[in-house]
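Figure 3 (text version): structure tokens given as input.
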């Protein structure tokens, strides 16, 4: 079973791509977005609350983590994810913990 420190996400999250409709439009950046386009931070995912020190989602792969964060960005009305990163999880099976910041571009 999974440890109490997170949930391992395996298989499709929503459909064969793992994305909710329109999530494929969410761009994922490892750093800040390039260029001078203005944006605001919406929410830091999986690293913002004190709860994240004890319980965060674990994913079977970096791709599964990116798909989940894209889905979260759609739910929050965001346009992209900045500062995306995944890290190996200390668990009994291969897993990664991913986080990033949902951003919304100014119109």
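Below: residues designed for each position.
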């Amino acid at each position: 079973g999974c440890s109490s420190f997170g949930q391992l996400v395996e298989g499709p999250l929503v459909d064969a791509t793992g994305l909710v409709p329109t999530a494929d439009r969410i761009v994922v950046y490892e750093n800040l977005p390039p260029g001078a386009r203005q944006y605001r931070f919406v929410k830091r995912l999986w690293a913002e609350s004190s709860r994240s020190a004890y319980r965060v989602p674990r994913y079977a792969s970096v791709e599964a983590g990116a798909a989940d964060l894209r889905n979260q960005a759609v739910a929050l009305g965001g346009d992209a994810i900045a500062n995306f990163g995944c890290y190996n999880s200390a668990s009994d099976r291969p897993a990664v913990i991913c986080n990033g910041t949902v951003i919304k571009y100014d119109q």
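Strands lie at 8-9, 27-28, 39-45, 58-59, 80-88, 96-105.
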